[in-house]
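Q: Joint fold for the lines below.
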Amino acid sequence: MITQTRTPPHTPVDPVRNEARPRVAGGLFDPGQLLRSVPDAVRKLDPRVMAKSPVMFVVEVGSVLTTVLAVTDPGDWFGWVIAAWLWLTVLFANLAEAVAEGRGKAQADTLRQAKTDTVARRRTAAGEERVPGTDLRVGDLVVCEAGDVIPGDGDVVEGVASVDESAITGESAPVIRESGGDRSAVTGGTKVLSDRVVVRITAKPGETFIDRMIALVEGAARQKTPNEIALNILLASLTVVFLLAVVTLQPFAVYAGAEQSLVVLAALLVCLIPTTIGALLSAIGIAGMDRLVQRNVLAMSGRAVEAAGDVSTLLLDKTGTITLGNRQAHEFLPVPGTGEAELADAAQLSSLADETPEGRSIVVLAKSRYGLREREPGALAHADWVPFTAQTRMSGVDADGRQVRKGAAGAVAAWVRERGGEVPDAVRDTADTVAESGGTPLLVAVADDRGARVLGVVHLKDVVKEGMRERFAELRRMGIRTVMITGDNAKTAKAIAAEAGVDDFLAEATPEDKMALIKREQAGGKLVAMTGDGTNDAPALAQADVGVAMNTGTSAAKEAGNMVDLDSNPTKLIEIVEIGKQLLITRGALTTFSIANDVAKYFAIIPAMFAAAYPSLDRLNIMQLSSPESAILSAVVFNALVIVALVPLALRGVRYRPVSADRMLRRNIGVYGLGGLVAPFVGIKLIDLVVSLIPGIG
Amino acid sequence: MSPILADVLQVSALVAALALVHRPLGDYMARVYAGKKHSRVERWIYRAVGADPDAGMRWPAYLRAVLAFSLAGVLFLYLLQRLQDRLPLSLGFAAISPDQAFNTAASFVANTNWQSYSGESAMGQLAQTGGLAVQNFVSAAVGMAVAVALIRGFARARTGELGNFWADLVRGTLRILLPMAAVAAVLLIACGAIQNFSGTQSVTTVTGQTQHLTGGAVASQEAIKDLGTNGGGYYNANSAHPFENPSGISNLLEIFLLLVIPFAMPRTFGRMVGSVRQGYAVVAAMAGIWLAGVVAVTWLEAAHPGTAAQLAGGAMEGKEQRFGEGASSLFAVSTTMTSTGSVNSFHDSFSGLSGGVLLFGMMIGEIAPGGVGSGLYGMLVMAVVAVFIAGLMVGRTPEYLGKKIGPREMKLAACYILVTPALVLTGTALAMGTGNGESSMTNTGPHGFSEVLYAYTSASNNNGSAFAGFAANTGFHNTALGLCMLLGRFLPMVFVLALAGSLAGQRPVPASAGTLRTDKPLFTGVLVACIAIVAGLTFFPSLALGPLAEGLAA
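A: Joint structure:
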C-alpha cells in the first residue's frame, strides 16, 4: 500500500454497523424540548435577531402593528385575537429555531465538561513549569503522563501512550498515540491513560478542536450557506410581492366600497408571505448539522453539508472502506504431489510466528477447513521461530531439521533457490491466477533432507464488506460515481473493483495521483468527496469539495478536511452524502408546501373581506366558513399551528430514499405540493368549525 | 358547420401551421445568431454606426448598447411627433402634445404599442411609416437580441461574453423580421388589406353621411405589427378594421403571425444550448397555457348566459360579425399572451370571467408564448425559479442546464419577477388612489376597476391592448403608463442580461441520474404550476375585485 490508509484501531469490524453510538440521546423529536425552549424563543423576539429572517421580521412588525391597533381600540375583541395569534406565529418560529439549537446545546454541555480548566506542564529550558492550559501558545512543548488531561491540541513528539478519547468520540476503548507517523495527533480534553508523551501544541487556546466543536454544535459559528441565502432571497422577494399586493389592495377596496381595517390587512399579509418555510428555514439547517453530529461527524461549515448533497464523485479508499481492513486466507492451493492437508499443516506451522492479521487468518483457515488445532509456539520442542518482518517478508519455524517458510512469493522463491531448490512453473501459474483474481499469493516452502521445495500457494483475498455492492448500486441510481483508490496493482484493483461493483478505480495510487484525479473531476464541473487521515492526504482533502478526515488521523489531515468523522469510519461518507441531500430536500419540500398553502388562504380571506361589497364573491367561499371573522381568524390560526406541526419534520428531515431524481421529484411534489394545496382547506375548515362554536363569532 | 366544429378546426389548423414552422424557423434563427459572416448591407450598417460586429460584449456593455439604442429611439420618435406639423407627409395633422408624444414614443420603443391616439386622425404618414413602423422592427429585434444573449449565457462556459448587440440587432431585423414581414405583407395584400400612399378620401355613405378614409402603407405595417408582437394598428379599430384585417383568412394569418416567432424561439433556444428537448419542454409549457386560455375564453364567451348573447349564439357585443365569437376569442387570447396587443374585437366587451383570463394572460408576465424574444427570456427566468424549488426537492443545490442557481442568480431572477407586479399594482393603486382611475372609466363597479387594472397590466407587461372604454389620453395616464411601459420593458432586460452574464461565467455541472431533468413533461408541469401560482397569488385580490366580482355575479 502506498497510500497511508490503514485500519484505525477501533474501526468497527462489522461492516453493516455504521451507526455511531450517539453521545447524547437524540434523533427523535422530544415534545418536552418545546417547553424548555420557550425562554430562548422569547429572547429571540429582539428585532435585531428577527431582522435576519425577512419573512418573520415582517410578521413581527405586523404583530406590533395589530397590538398597537388593539390597544387604541380595546373593545375590538377581533383585533386582540388576531394580534395574539400573530405574536404566537413569531413565537412558534423562534421556538423551532430554539429547539433545534437546544439539542446542540446539550451536546455542547457534555463537551464543556471535558474542557474544564487544565494545568499544563510546560517544558522550559530549565525543566518544567506548571501553567494554566489557557496560557499555552503554539509551539509549546507539554508533558502528559498517565492520568493527565491533555491541555490542548497537538502532535506527540516524544513517547507513546494510550489515550482515552471518549470525551470527544464517545468511544470508551483507549487508542494509541505515538510520535511520528499518522497516529501522532492528540486532542485537548482527552486523557492519557498510561505512559508518558511530550506534545507540541498546534492550536491557540480558544481555537482548539473542542472549542470549534462546541461552537459548531451550539450553532454559534453557523453562517448561512449559499443555498440558504438564495432561498432567503426568493422568500424575501415573495414577501415583497405580497406586501405590494396587500398595500395596494386598500385603494381598490375603497373604490369597491369595502375599506378594510388594518388588522385584516395585516392578517392577510401574514397568511400570504411564506411564513412556514421562513419560520423553519434556520431550524432545518441546524438540524442538518445536528444529524451529522448524531452520527459522530463534525462538519466545519454548513456549506460542506450542502456540498455533500451535490457530490457527484466519491473517492473511496479500498482498505477499510470497501474491503475489510485486511486480506484473509481464502484457500490452500498445493503443488502437484503435495496433499492439501500437508500444505495446510505447513502453512499453519509457518504462520504461528506471524502476528499480522494475514498470518492469523491462515491459522484460522487451517483450523476451520482442516481441523488443525492451533499450536502455541511453545508446543514444539527445539523450535526456532522466525517472526514475520517487513524486511524478510517471511515467517516460519526451524524445528527437527526441517525449515518451513511462508511469505511473499518473491521472497519465498528466492529462499528456495538459495537452498538449491526449484520453483516449478505450475507454482508461478497458480500465483498468477491468484493475482489476476484480485488476490495475493503467498508461497509456502519447506527445506529438509529432501531439499528445498515449494509446497503450494496460499490465496489471500481481500474480503469486500457485506452490502457494499448494493450501496454502490444505490449511489449509481442517485447519479453518484464511485472510484476506488488503492495501492494495489491494476490487475488486483480491477478484480476487486468488479467484485465490489464500483464504477472506476485508481490503482497504484500515490497522493499525487489522487490529487490529479480530484482536479480532473472538478475541471469537469463535478463535486468530489473523499476521506483521508494521513498527512499526505491533506492536500487532497483540502482540494476535495467534501473532505472527511478521520479523527484518528493527523492534525494536518483534520485541518485540511471540512468534516471530521469521530468514529473514523470511512464508509460513513455515503451517509454524509445522504444527509446533505436530505437537508436540501427538506428545504425544497417545505418551501413548496408553504407556497401551495396560500391558495386555500385566499379562498378563506378574500370572500370574507369583500363578499359584503360584492355578494358574488361569496361563491369563492368554497369552504363554507361560518363568518368573515371566523374565516380570517381560522386562516391565521392555521398559519401559526402549521409551523408547530412541521417542527418535527424540519428537525428530522423528510424521508429520503436513494432513487433517481425523477422519482424523487414526483414523490415530493405529490406529498408536499399537492398536500400543501389540500391540507389547508381541510385544516382551515376544521379550525373554523371549532372557532364558530365560540359565542359571538360563528 | 357548427360553430364549435369551426372553432376546433380553426385552432387545429393554427396549431398545425405553427408546429410545421417551429423546427425550420427555430433552426434558422439559431443559425442566424450563431453565424459568423456579414452581408454587404450589414457591413455597411456596422460602418455607419461605427460598431465592430465581431467584438464580444460582456453583459454591461451589451446592456449599455440596448439602452443607448432604445433611448435614441425614444428621442427620435418624440421629436418626429412633436415636429409633425413642420415635416412632410403629415396629412395636415397637428403636432402631438408632449405627454402623448412621450407616451407614444415610450410605447413603440418598449414594443408595447399602447395607443392613446387614433392613428387615422392624429398621425401622418411620415410618423406612421418612418417612425412607428421602424420601431416595430427594431424594438422586436432588441427583444430577440436580449433573449439570444440569455441563451448564450446558458450555452457558454467560463466566459463573460454574450455576443454583440449590434450584430444581433441587425441580423434579427434584416435576416428574420424583414423577409418574414415582406412575405406576410404580400399575403395580407392578397387577402385584401390596403397598401398605398393616398391621402384622406371622403366618401358619402349609404345613409348620406360623409366619411373620411385615410389610406397608407397598411398591409406592410400590419405584417410587422403582428410578426413583431407590437400591436399598434394603423387605425384605431386595429385588426377589427377591414383595411387592416379584411377576412376570416387574413384574421387567421394575423393570429399565425402573432404566434409564429414566439413559439419558434424555444427551438432556437434548444438548438443553441445543444439539446432540442430542453426547447420542447419550454414550448410545451407555453403552448399548454395558451391553449388553456383559448379553450377557457372561447367556452366562457359561447356560454355567456345573457339573453342577447344566447340569441346571437355567443357574446357578440364588441365583436366583428365577420369573425364571430370563436375567431375573436382566439385572437384575444393570442394577442394578450404574446404581448402584441393588436385586437380584432373589444376586450372591454368580453364577459367578466373571460376578461379575467385575458388579464391573467398578461399578468403571468407575457410568457405563453410572450413577445418576440421577451416571451422566451421571461419563460426562462420563470424556469430558473421553478428549477430552484424543484431542484431542491431532488436533493441537490439547484442547477438549470448545468448552471448553478446560487444567490446571485436567484437575486436577479427575483428582481425580474418583482418588476412587473410592482408596476401593475402600484400603477393601478396610484390611479385609483388619486381618483385618476375613476375619472377615466366608462363603466362603474367592478368592470370600471377592470378597465384601470387592464390598462396598467397591459402597459407594464408591454402588451398594448386596452379595455376600450378607458379614456387613457390624460396627462396622468399618458405619463404613468409611459413610465410603466419603459420600466416594464427595460428593467427586466437589465436583470436578464446580468443573469446571462452570471450564467455565462460559470463552469457547467455535468448531468447525472441525480440531476433534475428539465427536458421532461414533469418539469413542464412544475413550470406551469409555478407560473400560475406565483402570478395567481400576486394578483388574486385585484382580480377578485374586478373580473371575478363581475363574472361570478352573472
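Q: Anything notable?
A: The CA atoms of residues 153 and 187 of chain A lie 4 Å apart. Chain A touches chain B through 74 residues (CB under 8 Å).
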